[in-house]
Amino acid sequence: MAEQDKILSDITAKEYEYGFVTDIETHTLPKGLSEDVVRQISALKGEPEWMLEYRLKAYRKWLTMELPQWAHLNIPPIDFQDIIYFAAPKKQPDKKSMDEVDPKLRETFDKLGIPLEEQMALAGVAVDAVMDSVSVKTTFRETLAEKGIIFCSMSEAIREYPDLVRKYLGSVVPYTDNFYSALNAAVFSDGSFCYIPKGVRCPMELSTYFRINAAGTGQFERTLIVADEGAYVSYLEGCTAPMRDENQLHAAVVEIVVEKDAEVKYSTVQNWYPGDKDGKGGVYNFVTKRGICRGDNARLSWTQVETGSAITWKYPSCVLLGDNSVGEFYSVALTNNYQQADTGTKMIHLGRNTRSRIVSKGISAGRSQNSYRGLVKVAAGAEGARNFSQCDSLLLGDKCGAHTFPYIDCHNTSAVVEHEATTSKISDDQLFYCNQRGIGTEEAVGLIVNGYAKEVLAKLPMEFAVEAQKLLAISLEGSVG
Amino acid sequence: MLKVKNLHATVDGKEILRGIDFEVKAGEVHAIMGPNGSGKSTFASVLAGNEKFTVTEGTVEYGGEDLLELSIEERARKGLFLGFQYPVEIPGVSMANFMKLAVAERRKAQGLEPLTAGGMLKYMREKAAVVELDAKLMSRAVNEGFSGGEKKKNEIFQMAMLEPKLAVLDETDSGLDIDALRIVATGVNRLRSEQNATVLITHYQRLLDYIQPDFVHVLYKGRIIYSGDKSLALKLEKEGYDWLIADYKED
Questions:
Q1: pTM of the prediction?
Q2: Residue of B49, B51, B41, B48 whose CA lies nearest to B17
Q3: Of A222, A436, B42, B74, which is least surrounded by CB within 10 A?
Q4: Domain B2-245, what architecture?
Q5: Which of A286, A272, A270 is nearest to A244 (CA)?
Q6: pLDDT in tens, A135-190
Q7: Contacts with B73 from chain A: Cβ below 8 Å
Q8: Closest Cα of chain A to B208: distance in Å?
Q9: Does A438 lie at the interface with B, CB-CB under 8 angstroms?
């Protein structure tokens, strides 16, 4: 047993492999947040007046709001005046040509295994890369433009497609929604914008890659995806950050609008720096993600693999407004060492015959705390609504915690809401069986954990699924018992 | 190939094996029989290295090495195979994937390159046919939803895949109907060679109708108290163990 514990702690103690810092000159605003800082961000980005107004309203609202305290998280006090709200690589890349992107930036993304050009072309993925606060490069613009698909940085969208942005920005996650959404609306610096026109099926995966590089910086990106009637898109998001002793704040907002008969799949592999084995440093990931199925027969599916961040507070949700619309949430959340996660989803059934499915797989190791928190709400008018939720927890070792907080709020008697939950451990017998077949304990744990998470991993696009499998195994190295 | 001398082992402080002496040479098939609770399964587990049991005394030499110094997976990679009495389920992990890893480890230990995907597939089909195991089971999770018979056939299938030097089959025959028993036995017989050896742990003589052992041993209260050839099994079937164990009952 002691031996196993040791192996477990060795595996779980594997170092974070994306922890390097790119030595690149950045343009930063001084620390702290004020109306003036909000104005400066807007001015630096050359934004129109309406955008500045929106930011200022959000900022003023934020001043009146309080930090959410209801999650099962122990969050040390955050000094919001001690954060840099805007950092941009100094050499502003020209997004028309890859050659003009700073070689160091390209190197960074290469190191991360995110080659922005040829390899992505082979993989058929269009990428928007966001480093610190600025979108570095969006690939495949032309190919997509032929189909009328807009995929660009949020800053650009604000300048070039103001009508679309004004129509949808804040329509799903208003700045009044919560403390972090207000903060994000006030200071967001960039992010991705994606619009799929009526009846268009996006021919490739769209992907945004987020990277926090500069020290003392918060990252506040904003993503807006709109799938017009009958459109389809699959969207991927990846994230990493350098290893730093301090905690870094990441407060993003993702909004998704799915119109009639349209479908959006949103997949995340979140691998922010989780802090070291003693819980020092790491990213605070306080993110608001929500989509709305506005029209009939719309479908929205969230898939997330969460292995990073010191603290995760995140509930990708679906508002099912259109009749027969479908919301799905597939999640694997792995916590190790001193990580904390409070994550789950909200399924808000408003339309008739709306359906939702929740599959949550929590994996806790080390001294981590892992909570599932989910709300299934069925409004009075949601005749025939159906929900199925499955929440499984896997515990590795005896010092971690797994918690489940399911909320069901049902106002329609014709609705059917089901909830299943299990808690399990990797058994000694399973490990012995694997060992007896020549499979070492580390590998066996990776195998068993991946088997446990399979239902969710299977929802990821192929190239991401392979990455996610490796990530799960790496994140757990050292954690059996 | 295997030399066990004066092996003692305990679980939770209770002594189960109390001085086993046992030797296996290449090409031999040994059957270990004995009443319930005599330590048969414990002996198999200890050979495989199960950490539930503590070896308190004695030596085990395997292929010229000190077996007790090797980890569970090292023993396996060096060709020691345990056929489980109760194979465990590993949800979500496909048999194919599981076997791919296991075979790769075994081949690595033998200094061989891993098989290509195509080669692996062919190899699996071939070996599955030996035990009449439905190849469709390869895409299912390890032992999950397998019937009792399928689980046992699956153990023999894995044995065939891993080509062990020494296979210890722990009550592989228990719970099998006569057809399944015949299939399992055929599988074992087809894998017999001059280079490998098999230890069958069994409760019933009927398995030995299908697999001819060179030696039959009786394990009782943690010791091998009697050894003979296959006629011993027939005698045990007819007369039970009483004539043998009478002398030991006071222990």
A1: 0.82
A2: B41
A3: B74
A4: 3-Layer(aba) Sandwich (3.40)
A5: A272
A6: 555 667 777 889 999 988 898 899 999 999 999 999 999 999 999 999 999 999 88
A7: 435-436, 438-441
A8: 26
A9: yes
